[in-house]
Design goal:
CATH superfamily of the largest domain: HUPs
Structural class: alpha+beta
CATH architecture of the largest domain: 3-Layer(aba) Sandwich
Distance between the termini: 76 Å
Number of strands: 25
CATH topology of the largest domain: Rossmann fold
CATH class of the largest domain: Alpha Beta
Largest sheet: 5 strands, parallel
Helix content: 40-55%
Number of domains: 4
Shape: elongated
């Protein structure tokens, strides 16, 4: 059977972390390895998602071009995947030429079939930067909870999603300048036209309840969605009248699954082979994503495929996992709440983290990595159960069986029960892999190791080895334990490939388990007399001091990030009496005119209506606000401040501003009438 597997394309805007791995990559890799062992024709496809506003923003902040930016993180993430043993058959990039052609063809088919519409919209525009700003370039006040540092598409405090144009007092992240609405034209995917088809599509799927329920709820409010941006970085539209527009990243990224598969086929020297996976209805297609990607993969991408002139394969199983956090909080580079991966892999084996993530995989609810849990998984399970079984049996075989696989002779009831229990667990593990449940599979793998350890203890082969008459019973025990270890290596291979290959070699086999077949390994017993290499230790104990060091390192990084993020607060000034404060006359002022002061880099000359009269006020904000941005703003004016001459102009008051990162930010008001008192 042909099985096409894709993982959500990782965004080439920063290094990956274990939270990403737990959602879309380790579960997919385990499933791909399992199906290869079963002899299926598996193609595991992924690639870097390299367009979008977030990348241009980060690149600007880093002082490099978007291409240089994605080149860097593509390399970083490829190295990470390699270290972790993620077995992609092909890992592509959306900046590759073939991807552009695929995206443009998708668009043209949708346009020709009546599923695309051009509309005039209002978008946020920065007069000082002379460009439209997409949501990632914008910050402002949340329309739901009034959080003052809300992102352009989502509030970090209340979690609300909205359009950037819904923000109150939007401003540029780059310059801090206020933004205004300006008309532009964009292309929209008419998602509502697919509503009935999508309902039928979902009814035929037996996905996890969290995925199906989310999609069914979302589909009731599905609406047209913009697929273009006013940017230079992205896949350009193939229309003469839309030269300065590119595709929104949510539209182009999932098409990367197809373009990457086509690229794989071309590199294999079989340029049409990609169609065997994408245009054959008998292919089983499985997508692995994080839960934040559900609407795009359960609804929007299927709708895009429905609008094509080609019979592309729709997803059969959409495996969406929940969030995987770090010590109770989301992984966050900006907050310093992250694990240094270079440091991690100098201290720990990749299979230790693969197992730790799998054993606590966020399949049906959020889960987390904690250093103490990691230590327990490594010491009590990998070392205490799994590694201990292999070491004690192989050492015993070296010492008491001449370093060779012994023959099993007459089986007693305890031996047959052990074989039956082992077989039952293996069948169950196989079913769990088939159902994408690596968390439970990990538990049963350890149960299998525990079962073999108990059997070894019950049979006490060290006693039987002392008496020549009981040696056959001892050899039977060791033969069955070695057989259990062989099967344990097989069923654990999708989760711990490097370690199980070592075990495979310690049993006298050459090469890797990767090229073996699940059924054949289970049905072919070890050959008596096979020489066994001297055993080696598979896992080292993780000491308390190491965990204490790592926990301290995490907290130090978090504290440093907070120090950088939170500027020092100016000390309070000396107390004043209420009588002193009452002397201030604070008024609402409406800025009616604004212009730069000649020969001054900092000063703006404002005409401010304070109700009773209009006044000229000078303000040192020219480097942060343009005159056009200030007209129409309601500000707070100190109306009874003694006049002062600056640059030959009399200033009749002062405008109040806050200080954010050493930059002045005007305190603006809502609809209070000019002249209103501030008390």
């Amino acid at each position: 059977m042909k099985i096409l597997i894709t993982s959500a394309l990782p965004y080439a805007n920063g290094p990956l972390h274990f939270g990403h791995i737990a959602g879309a990559y380790l579960p997919a890799d385990c499933y791909a390895r399992f199906e290869r062992l079963r002899g299926n024709d598996v193609l595991y496809i992924c690639g870097s998602d390299e367009y979008g506003v977030a990348i241009t923003l980060s690149a600007e902040l880093a002082g490099r071009s978007p291409k240089e930016h994605v080149d860097h993180f593509h390399r970083v993430n490829c190295d990470f995947f390699k270290t972790l043993g993620i077995s992609f058959d092909h890992f592509s990039r959306t900046t590759n030429e073939g991807h552009q052609e695929f995206v443009q063809q998708f668009f043209l088919d949708l346009l020709a079939n009546g599923y695309i519409e051009e509309r005039e919209t209002d978008q946020l525009y920065s007069q000082s930067e002379k460009r439209f700003l997409a949501d990632r370039y914008v910050t402002g006040i949340c329309p739901s909870c009034n959080y003052e540092e809300a992102r352009g598409d989502e509030c970090g405090r209340c979690g609300a999603s909205y359009e950037a144009t819904d923000l109150k007092h939007p401003r540029s992240k780059m310059s801090g300048a206020s933004l205004s609405l300006k008309k532009t034209r964009h292309y929209f995917l008419l998602c509502g036209k697919f509503k009935d088809q999508l309902k039928t599509f979902l009814e035929a799927r037996t996905w996890k309840p969290n995925v199906v329920n989310f999609a069914r709820h979302y589909i009731e409010k599905i609406h047209s969605r913009s697929i273009t941006r006013d940017l230079e970085w992205g896949v350009p539209l193939p229309l003469e009248e839309a030269k300065n527009k590119v595709f929104y990243v949510w539209f182009d990224a999932p098409i990367g699954y197809l373009s990457a598969t086509k690229e794989w086929a071309e590199r294999e020297g079989r340029p049409e082979a990609w169609k065997e996976y994408w245009q054959d209805p008998k292919t089983k297609y499985v997508q692995f994503i994080g839960k934040d990607n559900i609407p795009f993969h359960a609804l929007f991408f299927p709708a895009m495929i429905m609008g094509q002139n080609q019979p592309y394969k729709q997803v059969d199983d959409l495996v969406a996992n929940e969030f995987y956090n770090l010590e109770g909080k989301q992984f966050s580079k900006s907050e310093g709440w992250i694990i240094d991966l270079d440091r991690f892999f100098t201290r720990f084996h990749p299979d230790q983290i693969r197992y730790a993530i799998a054993a606590n995989a966020p399949e049906c609810g959020d889960s987390e990595f904690t250093w103490k849990d990691f230590q327990t998984r490594c010491n009590a399970e990998l070392l205490g159960k799994f590694g201990n079984l292999i070491n004690r049996v192989l050492v015993f075989a070296q010492n008491q069986c001449g370093g060779k696989v012994p023959a099993a002779s007459q089986l007693e009831e305890v031996d047959r029960r052990f074989e039956n229990d082992t077989h039952r667990l293996i069948v169950e593990i196989e079913e769990l892999y088939e159902g994408y449940r690596i968390r439970k599979a990990s538990q049963l793998i350890m149960e299998l190791a525990h079962l073999a350890n108990v059997y070894f203890d019950v049979k006490t082969p060290w006693k039987a080895a002392k008496d020549e008459k009981s040696r056959p019973a001892m050899e039977t025990t060791i033969a069955l334990c070695l057989e259990a270890i062989k099967n344990l290596a097989l069923v654990a291979h999708p989760i711990m490939p490097q370690t199980t290959d070592k075990i495979w070699n310690l049993l006298g086999f050459e090469g890797s388990i990767e090229g073996q077949r699940w059924k054949a390994v289970l049905e072919t017993p070890l050959k008596p007399g096979t020489a066994l290499p001297k055993p080696t230790i598979l896992f080292q104990k993780v000491e308390d001091e190491v965990i204490e060091e790592e926990t301290a390192m995490l907290n130090q990084m978090h504290d440093r990030a907070r120090e950088v993020k939170e500027p020092p607060i100016t000390p309070l000034k000396k107390e004043i009496t209420f009588d002193t404060f009452e002397k201030l006359d604070l008024r609402v002022g409406l800025v009616t005119q604004a212009q730069k002061v000649p020969k001054s880099k900092k000063l703006l000359q404002l005409e401010v209506d304070i109700g009773l009269e209009k006044r000229t006020v000078l303000s040192g904000i020219s480097q942060h606000y343009t005159p056009e941005e200030l007209v129409g703003k309601r500000v707070i004016v100190v109306a009874n401040l003694k006049s002062a001459k600056l640059m030959g102009i009399e200033s009749q008051g002062m405008i109040l501003a806050g200080n954010v990162d050493s930059k002045p930010e005007l305190i603006t008001l809502g609809d209070l009438p000019a002249g209103s008192e501030i008390t």
